[in-house]
Amino acid sequence: MVPAELLQAGVQDKPTPGSCVDRPLFTRHAGNPILSRELWPYPINSVFNAGAVSLADGETLLLCRVEDRTGLSHLCAARSTNGVDDWRIDPRPTLAANPEYPEEIWGIEDPRITYVPELEQYAVAYTSFSRGGPGVSLALTKDFRTFERYGVIMQPEDKDAALLPRRIGGRWALVHRPVTPLGAHMWISYSPDLHHWGSHKIMLAARRGGWWDANKIGLCSPPIETPRGWLTIYHGVRQTASGSIYRLGLALFDLERPEICLLRGDSWMFGPEASYERGAT
Fold first, then answer.
1. CATH 2.115.10.20: does it fit domain 4-31+100-278?
2. pTM for this one?
3. 83: exposed, middle or buried (Cβ count in 10 Å: 0-12, 13-18, 19+)
4. Pairing assessment for the beta strands 229-240 and 243-253 based on DSSP bridges
5. In the chain, where are the structural domains located?
6. What's residue 278's pLDDT?
């Protein structure tokens, strides 16, 4: 069950016998998958792991991870007036690996987008991949046409990052997931200028034992600011005899001290069920 405080922060509980709730927390769209490689205007192998944002004109933009036929990934934007269909996809990669940044030589992946009012720009935190492994890179954009790259801001092995939309105590805050001798947990780090990062703290640890999120965890979409705290959807990974299972859970963090977890649901809220979620398409 989801704690009542998480429900008050803006979510609904999943139906249980005798419950008055008559719908699940998340509902799959009947038209899924809404994007596939067949829609792409140039040859690709697959499209997945998109960062999503609602633009000022009301359109939905998905900045998708696209794997081409070399096996490497780049980012490509798709726009829609309703966020479901009639996608207008950029005719070429929107943001591709740049040879001037050696941390990107094996591609760029998995963007998370935050609109930052103070900067009047969108911050795109993405995974840059190279011989050293995955790291966190950052770029700013006003229009998803041109980008100001900040380069790698968290060294390998690190990924699953998103910038909070406002400063915390005068500093920018980044949620990310390094792999350290302590395990694969969610951390938060702070910066005065988006370039230099420190004050690293674990904000949510992977559980131990048989839990659904016992192996490793990581941020999904950027945290959502609510009156009760930062509402966060995170993924947990459990290793099984047939492979890894990724599921989604919920946690709530303090508004001014986001390294402090106020609430964490025990059960996962969303897991693979449909055929397109359980195998290659």
1. yes
2. 0.90
3. middle
4. antiparallel
5. 4-31+100-278
6. 83
